[in-house]
Amino acid sequence: MKRINLAATAVESREQRLGTIIGWDGNADTLANASGYARNCTQRSGKTCELCEVRGPFTQGSVCSEQMVECQAGNVRDAVLIQHSPIGCAVSQTIYNSIYRNGLSIRNLPVENLRIVSTNLLEKDMVFGGLDKLKQTLEDVWDRYKPKAVFIGTSCATGIIGDDIDSVAAQYTEKLGIPVVPLHCEGFRSKHWSTGFDSTQHGILRDIVRKQPKKQEDLVNVINLWGSDVFTPMLKELNLRVNYVIDMATVEDLAQMSEAVATVGFCNTLSSYLAQGLEQNFGVPELKAPQPYGFAGTDAWIRGLAKLTNREELAESYIAREHARVKPLIEDVKTKLKGKKGYVATGSAYSHGLISVMRELGIEVNGSLVFHHDPVYDSEDPAQDTLSYLVDNYGDVESFSVSNRQQHQFYALLKKVQPDFILIRHNGLAPLASRLGIPAAPLGDEHIAVGYDGIVNLGNAILGILQRKKFHEDLSKHVKLPYTKWWLEQTDPYIIAKNPELIYQD
């Protein structure tokens, strides 16, 4: 296992650390075998396998690491994020403000706006440097907000000119008496935006987490996004308290992560770096178990947490009660969903969990698109191999693709599978599905499918989607797709990636 180095201010990218890929097409079983958890892997190079990535000649659209810093560091309630960038990099503050406010409302927290500001670098700053603007912004932020911490996120522009944000952060940490945390998250630093999660988590581990903790034996770190509070009721059954991080946490919540008895998450993609950083550097064990989706995954997750916290009896009693309560509800939903075919387009580990739940509901799932694939996670523990867990427990996924939100590929992927509905995150792909007559559920509540109630919740959400199918079918008859006849006739979504010379032909 590679040790997480908190002495450095910049995190290693996912492709360096985990071998992350953003282009692949095949089936789930083949990808699981080719990845680095030693299922049947024979092509090892160091600690991970060599994966053959399908690399296209262009990128139609994606997200960058800096935006993930916005949706993590920018969501700490009593902190401020400074985007050391041109103003254009701040355009996504609008959508993240909406998501942040909705998340606070769902959790019954005081609703407020984000505290993210931009240094508004101009052309002259690109020539002469932008550190004076950064210092002035720090002064202004302190005068206006008196935050408990300030994060400084870099951009492609500051990466190009080489502004030394580390020295400014150190200077103002001493001057203001609060953590001023440099986050190196230039968009070109990594080919996939998930490295931005790691950048935020790295800075928090270095500069905010308490170095001399006093253990709280009933406190559990739950690494999450903005979803509803499903973990408090679950962990309460084991007499445990939830410490939600990073989104919508306070600086104190982040500081006390080193005092917890364990760290868990709902998605290994999101939690991989932070959980291992806490385990390796602060002695807080990461739960090594399947994700809490479906009966099998949730059972294993609860039992694993109970073992870490010496609460096995409570766990078995809870599991038995929940099975008895939820199974009749699920049977009713399964009857209504009989014969339906679904498709999942989300982040990687999250997709694996959603497919598990859909198959427990009796839904046929023979296709999925994930936005990237990590051959391993930071613990390198086979218990966290979510793709192999899906295949071994719920069967193969025939059409399993990796693509970082490339709309031109999504068309052929959906035509190949022809689902009745899709579950989706990062909603830019949903309008294309609508044009094909396929209703989509944009999963705004990331925790909708977590735990025993999550099986019922997801089933009911899908039933709601299917009620709108006639509308989408009618819509498809009156819209035109923005692609050439030649492209619409292609059956291989990756034909241009495999044959890049085609883009130069008439």
From TrEMBL:
The Nitrogenase/oxidoreductase component domain covers 73-465
Entry keyword Oxidoreductase: yes
Alphabetically sorted, this entry's keywords are: Oxidoreductase
**Gene3D superfamilies the record matches:** Nitrogenase molybdenum iron protein domain
First-level EC class: oxidoreductase
Report the EC code(s) recorded for this entry.
Answer: 1.18.6.1
By its UniProt entry, which InterPro entries does this protein fall under? Nase/OxRdtase_comp1 (IPR000510), NifE-like (IPR049939)
- MF GO annotations: nitrogenase activity
SUPFAM superfamilies, alphabetized = Helical backbone' metal receptor
Please indicate if the UniProt record lists Nucleotide-binding as a keyword: no
Q: What name appears for this protein in its UniProt entry?
A: Nitrogenase molybdenum-iron protein alpha chain
Q: Which organism is it from?
A: Ruminiclostridium hungatei
- Specify the taxonomic lineage: Bacteria, Bacillati, Bacillota, Clostridia, Eubacteriales
